Amino acid sequence: QAYNRYVSAKSWNINQRTETEPGVVPDDMDEWGANLFKEKVNSHVEQALRDSALLLATSARSYVPFVEPGSTSALYGHNLYHLLVMRNILSMEEMESVLDAAFFRPKIRQLYANLIKAYKAQKNIDGVVLVALDCPQGYYTEMNRGIGQEDKTAEGFEKDAYMLALDELLQQYGKSAVAAEIYLQQANRARNMNQRVKALALCNEAIARYPKYNRINALKEVRQEILAPSLSFTLNEVVYPGAEVSVKVSHCNVDGFRLQFYKLNVPATSALLRERLDADFIKRHGTRVLTKDLVLKRTADYRQADTTLQVKMPAEGVYLLTASHGSGVQDRSSLVYVSKLKALTRRLPGKDCEVVVVDAQSGHPVA
């Protein structure tokens, strides 16, 4: 921790220093080269984990309150070896970000591999699976990389190295309920690659296969997110009375919605329009004058779609438009000013300004 704090604070200076000669350890850390910090951190990690058998046999519960067991601690047997490996991985990852990634990355990978090997020797399947899923650069080396735009296709998904590695892990340990965590990782990966149909299938399969797993709700939440309806709309804030106006609708898992026009009994300049425009506001200041039921076509892949609908505007006035749907979608609203008038301005010398009011459609001046 002391090394991490020092390196984080002075990383630029450290990386400018010449390397410290082998076997030389200056009393002043301000004279240490980056290579010496790497050696020291690595040495402390090796010493901390040297007696792995004893650490595996020692419960971290013996050190409460200095150690706080996590929600998955019981799956690892609460052992100190796991606690120290993960803490040292965290320290190395912090060092990796400011010093030499090429030095620390294989060592981090090896720490994960050692931990998995230890759990395999104990026949602790829960431990093996959870550690394998926890290591972004360890067990799967570089396979769990970022997702590029070119990967977000059905073909890219089928070839995704990380998904293939997770499939292999599932083949090995699918009989254990903890494999639900593999499904969760796969479902999230599929969702991030825009393969929401596949993500939903993975959720359904896992929920059916491990219904009593203690974290099965995490998969149910992913499923709920994929199937959740959403709806929003936009249109020009100022429109001409009686004009056919484009309403741009973004929607997901929705077959249609109700668009309602409420004419407000307040002027366009009223400070009341800066209030919360909710149902209570409508009750106090609005009168419903028009309702339109509009049809949408949902996508088969549960992804958001954009649709433009033509809607005829009512007579002049200030309106609040609301869009609602019966599947639990919250009401969306937008203020619209329906007016024939448009103000044209131009600067004059000094601070003066000339304003001409015209008909927004014909362009003729308004007397």
Question: In brief, what are we looking at here?
Answer:
With 367 residues, the protein is α+β, with helices and mostly antiparallel strands.
Total of DSSP H or I helical runs spanning 4+ residues:
12
- Order of strands in the sheet with most strands: 2-8-7-4-5
Uncertain parts = 141-145
Q: Can you give the helix content as a percent range?
A: 40-55%
The major sheet is characterized as: 5 strands, mixed
Based on helices, strands and strand pairing, what is the structural class? alpha+beta
DSSP strand tally: 10
The end-to-end distance, rounded to whole angstroms, is 77 Å
Average of the residue pLDDT scores? 86
Percentage beta strand = 15-25%
Write down the Rg.
31 Å
Which of globular, elongated, flat, extended, rod-shaped describes the shape?
elongated
SSE run: HHHHHHHHHHHEEEEHEEEEEE
How would you portray this structure in words?
By secondary structure, the chain is α+β, with helices and mostly antiparallel strands. Helix content is 41%, strand content 20%. It is built from 12 helices and 10 strands. It has helices at 2-16, 34-48, 52-57, 80-98, 101-121, 125-134, 154-158, 161-173, 180-192, 196-209, 216-227, 279-285; strands at residues 230-234, 238-239, 244-252, 256-264, 286-295, 305-312, 317-324, 332-338, 341-347, 353-359. The protein has a 5-stranded mixed beta sheet. A hairpin with a 5-residue loop joins strand 9 and strand 10 (353-359). Helix 4 packs antiparallel against helix 5 and helix 9 (180-192) runs antiparallel to helix 10 (196-209). The longest helix has 21 residues, at 101-121. The chain starts with a helix and ends in an 8-residue tail after the last strand. Mean pLDDT is 86; it is low at 141-145.
